[in-house]
Amino acid sequence: MRQDDHPARENSAEIGGSASDVVQAGTVHGGVHIHGQANSPTRRVPRQLPGDVSGFVNRSKELTALSTALTERHEPLVVGIYVLTGTAGVGKTALALHWAHAARHNFPDGQLYVNLRGHDPGLPVTPEQALDRFLRSLGVPPDGIPVELEDKSALYRTILAEQRVLVVLDNAASVGQVRPLLPGNADCLVVVTSRNRLSGLVVRDGARRLVLDTLSEAEAVELLKTVTAAYRNPDDPADLVELAALCARLPLALRIAAERASSRPLMLLHELISELRDESGLWDALTSDEEESDAVRTVFAWSYRALPADAARAFRLLGLHPGPEFSAQAAAALIGAGTARARSLLDVLVGCHVLEQRSPARYEFHDLLRAYAIDQVVTQEAEEDRRAAVERVVAWYVLSARSAVSILCPLDPDVLLDAPEAEVTALAFDGYDAAFRWYEEEQANFVGATRAAADAGLHRLAWQLPAVLWSVYAIQNPIEDWVLTTTTGLVSARAIRDRFGEAQLLASLGMAHLQSHQLEKAEEFHLAALAVREDLNDSSGIAQSTNDLGLLANRQHRLFAARTHFEQALAAFREVGDRANEAYLLSNLGVLQSDLDQHAAGIDTIRESLSISREVGDRLAESNALICLAIAHRRSGHLRDADSALRAALEIALADSYPVCEAVSLLESGYLRLAEGDPAEALPLFQHAASMQRRLGDRSREAIALDSAGMAYQRLGRPDEAIPFHRIAVSTHRDLGDQWQLALALDRLATALRESDQPEQARPQWVVALSILSTFDDPQAVRVRDRVTSNLANLADE
């Protein structure tokens, strides 16, 4: 193709539209501050196996079968999977952990473990939640974990592709819970435990199933002897056989019975057996369950009745904990005691094997024991006492979350106008790392805590917890938990007609849907939040909602509407004296002025934002303002000033670990290199930006970066290599319903096709782009539309 045959191209101002959209549409949202660790996964070897089971007995056949997995040669691309299945309490977890500890030296890249809680009385762990934990343990920063399940799973498989890792998936309920957690290479091995047969894993994924039966009589007796040997003289063999039978030869029941016997070393075993028979007779009269289930519950009741009164009360109240595991401080709130006393009671329960201590600071129930604890608390505690216990523990979560957020997001306003009434002691944190570590440890409990409060009629607590967590949710982007807790809280706020809480949670849901690019829902929630705040005459809230609607309009490339919203919000924030939000609004407005070809005005506005950001000490706002300033300078042709601003922005982003700002800085650096006529330098910047956006879970911004990489290939005279990048961008933007970015990507795809001597394939792309562009009326859209019209006319003349 001759030089004068090239289609009309974008100038340096036009290319910057993408970067502007990325910065303004979601990087900042009126006072929410993005924190996090370094964005690139660091080499980290996870060692997540819980402790081995003491006194493990036999299971030699199953251990041998598992060990063959270490020597067999699997298909090169097929991961080895073993499913351990059997009835509750048969020892599936004990076998899996015992073998895993013995085999862990075969997996130098680490061991991953998660209790999926498929049969717990509470909520099971979702694949999304499990992947979040795995990815964090593999070195992916929270900000770098994608939003969608498919993307999480793909990143997980990518990281494990070159590693030899053992993955233990404990207590799975279904194939759907397991399959996203499977690595993709044969060097890894997966061990799954489940009460269900998980036939889909066997049929489709090639898993091998090991069915665990109850122990033989000899094995059961040996287990009893092993656990009691250090505490009792040898017992009569016939008594041991009878005790094993009463326990249905189930390891869980056998261990609890053995612990009971060990705690009474001078009592003859047949006397203990007599007690157990009496308990068994009671259960026979009250239940008609299966024999094995009856035996387990009989042993539970026998052991429970032997607990001291205060330990028994702690045991049953802990059954009310709304999440899968808990700390001593949460237990203290739940049972209404000090932390030291709670720890003492927890030690008693752990010693009796009715509670498990998975780490020095975390406790959890076996699912059967939790169900038994719930039965006891319902029958033995009055309804008002149960409600008071739930109130205490949820209030503890609310106040501790408030304490953590005050450190993680220090400039965000406190949404708790009235502190919870329950007398609990909230945690205090000595810095960012401690506060964030607590958030990570407790994240799995927030959904359950919110639901528990709502179910108990504690509606104020039910809306306060997600409202307090909003700032951190916006940082970490756990969309599923964010939406679940906030939706539950919204129902509670409306139930007690708390309009302030309703507005807070509507705005939070709007931001959650904006960040997950569900723009119609985002608009619905933001408009609803604005309506409530107007009814309340909440000036600050109205300003915030107006800004949120501006961000939404800008993401949709409705620039004039966005400008109106930003100008109104700016005036409102100035009226109430909110300097921090004023800085963000000035950046929003300044880059929008640049979008509308008012570059000098935009530069002045952004400089004012930069000054205020430095005045209030908001480093994130400063980094954002510098990026916006770089965009405006580049568009006005001040390339040296743009480079200086961009370097300063990137320095802050790297120093303070703001990965979103870093990713946008990389993208804008690419545009700057293109404006300087250096596409070879621009290309790796765009590719790096796309990689970062993929880790951040933002499909829209990833597609923008890939589209920009295609532009660099075109400038390098390699249009054939540009086409795949543009096609991906077109597909993604069409899938997301982003009409503006779709039009830009179609134009760039058509240009690449035309330069690759494929004019007939270019024509329909430009036709569709022209149709979309006709719906926009801003200066950028007019220029792109004129260029597309000219290119179509040139095609017609050929």
Describe the structure.
By secondary structure, the protein is mainly alpha-helical. The longest helix is centred in the middle third of the chain and has 26 residues. Helix content is 66%, strand content 4%. Helix 5 runs parallel beside helix 6, helix 30 packs parallel to helix 32 and helix 33 runs antiparallel to helix 34. A hairpin with a 2-residue loop joins strand 6 and strand 7. This is Transcriptional regulator, SARP family. It holds the Pfam family TPR_12. It comes from Actinokineospora spheciospongiae. One of its GO terms (molecular function) is ADP binding.
Short recap of the structure:
The protein has 798 residues and is mainly α.
Largest β-sheet summary: 5 strands, parallel
Any low-confidence stretches, pLDDT <50, length ≥5? 1-8, 16-42, 282-289
Distance between the termini: 13 Å
What global shape is seen?
Answer: globular
**Top CATH class of the largest domain:** Mainly Alpha
CATH fold assignment of the largest domain: Serine Threonine Protein Phosphatase 5, Tetratricopeptide repeat
| Mean model confidence by pLDDT | 87
Helix % is 55-70%
| Beta-strand proportion | under 5%
| CATH hierarchy: architecture of the largest domain | Alpha Horseshoe
Oligomer: single chain
Pfam family, one: TPR_12
InterPro entries: P-loop_NTPase (IPR027417), TPR-like_helical_dom_sf (IPR011990), TPR_rpt (IPR019734)
Protein name: Transcriptional regulator, SARP family
GO molecular function: ADP binding
